Amino acid sequence: MGSYFEVRMIPQLQPNEIELIDWADEFAQQVLAPNAQQWDEEAHFPPEVFEQLCQRGLAAMLLPSDNGGADLSYVASVQIFERLVRGDLGVPFALLLQNNTLRSIWLHGTSEQKERWVPRLVDGSLIGAYVITEPDAGSDAGSMKSTAVSLAGDQWKLNGQKWLLSNSPVADLFVTSVVTQLENGEAGGISTFVLERDMAGLHVGQASETLGARSLPVGDLHFEDLTVDDGHRLGEIGSGMRMALDAVNFARVVWGGIAVGIAEAALEEIIEFLKEREQFGRAIADFQAVQFQLADLACKIEAVRSLTYRAAAAIDLGSRYIELGAMCKKMAGEMVVEVTSACHELLGGRGYLVPHSLERRMRDARLALVADGTTNIQRLVIARSLVGRR
Ligand SMILES: Cc1cc2nc3c(=O)[nH]c(=O)nc-3n(C[C@H](O)[C@H](O)[C@H](O)COP(=O)(O)OP(=O)(O)OC[C@H]3O[C@@H](n4cnc5c(N)ncnc54)[C@H](O)[C@@H]3O)c2cc1C
Q1: What is d(CA 305, CA 79) in angstroms, rounded to the nearest whole number?
Q2: Is domain 4-127 classified as CATH 1.10.540.10?
Q3: Digit-coded pLDDT (tens) for 136-188
Q4: What is the CATH T-level fold of the domain 129-241, as seen in this structure?
Q5: Which residue is closest in CA terms to ligand 1's atom 32?
Q6: pLDDT value, residue 1
Q7: Which of 146, 170, 248, 286 is the most exposed place for a label (fewest CB within 10 A)?
Q8: ipTM passes above 0.90
Q9: What CATH architecture is 248-387?
């Protein structure tokens, strides 16, 4: 493992990776971007578009191709997200959750579990959700209260409540963390179960109204004496927190790509506008004060891109990446909120009239401050590593 300072090289992309990144770019331009505004206004999740992405192997970016995956490096995967979110945030974010769900089953499932669920997650005929957060356990996920109690005959009974769950309103499969041995604490007391939508005792809530990424369905779950057999338990008993953190740590690096994609699209859009819009007898883009502002924003985007590719390379090289991932998520969130907000301001009064794509991107960007750990939680991860204390 070693120190995260060791990662100095970013591996080259393979030809199949470049081809898929270009495909994602085109898909964003031709399918996502033309519909993004309407999906935002109607809070609509388009299942057929999601399925198209899955059919191209993008639900299983890291899986080997003989299992239906895209066989991508992590460096390539973040670039796929970078391109897709230029069109829309919600649908690619739903895809990230699909990848997380699938990856957990792939890494920790029995051969029977893999056979049962992986192919249908790969082709998008099943939609996955990753279920950790509860109303009283967010940043402190280890304090979750939902339980699974062991019953006679290899059965478990689940009770509890989860919320703020991406994909949940439309999901078929829920990779869910619950407490199995309270006495073991968060390190060894949480286990993971795969729940299926039609199980008796599983109540799936309606989609909640959200600020941004509105094509992403987000909702809650209740378990009420939900009985499952042991074949629905994923991985070792007590390994649930490690599994959940692994998924979250992985996603934090993807957030770098997401932030770069949204910010770069916003910057390009405002530059086009500023070249056209004239005040004081000249294009606003001709004022050096504005040019300097744009230059500063471009530098911030590039800095996050470099950090993101380096963090992704750390994963590909099998090096330690937890701190780099947290740095990536922190810088990504701050950067994308700053860039989209500055671009929106440069629209002048037009930006206050809705709908406008830059207003949408500004709302979307704020998800980067919250999902997969808030900015303060990233600081906590980095600081604990620096100071060596919990
Ligand atoms: C659109 C959306 C999609 C989501 N998708 C999923 C999903 O698919 N699955 C899932 O399980 N969860 C999901 N989440 C939940 C998300 O992971 C949590 O919202 C996040 O971890 C923060 O938890 P919280 O909302 O309870 O905030 P809290 O933990 O209550 O935090 C509130 C504030 O306090 C700060 N804070 C908390 N603790 C500390 C501390 N020790 N030091 C300093 N500051 C602190 C936080 O930074 C934050 O600003 C999603 C959330 C959103 C908004």
Answers
A1: 10
A2: yes
A3: 999 999 999 999 999 999 999 999 999 999 999 999 999 999 999 988 877 78
A4: Butyryl-CoA Dehydrogenase, subunit A; domain 2 (2.40.110)
A5: 139
A6: 44
A7: 286
A8: yes
A9: Up-down Bundle (1.20)
pLDDT per position as a tens digit, 211-265: 999 999 999 999 999 999 999 999 999 999 999 999 999 899 999 999 999 999 9
Atom of ligand 1 nearest to the CA of 373: 21
Site of tokens 């591996």: 11
The alpha carbon of 118 and the centre of ligand 1 are apart by a number of angstroms equal to 29
CA nearest to 294, candidates 314, 320, 270, 276: 270
**What does the alpha-carbon distance between residue 35 and residue 30 come to, in Å, rounded to a whole number?**
9
Give the mutation target among 97, 139, 175, 254 for probing the ligand 1 site: most ligand atoms within 8 A of CB.
139
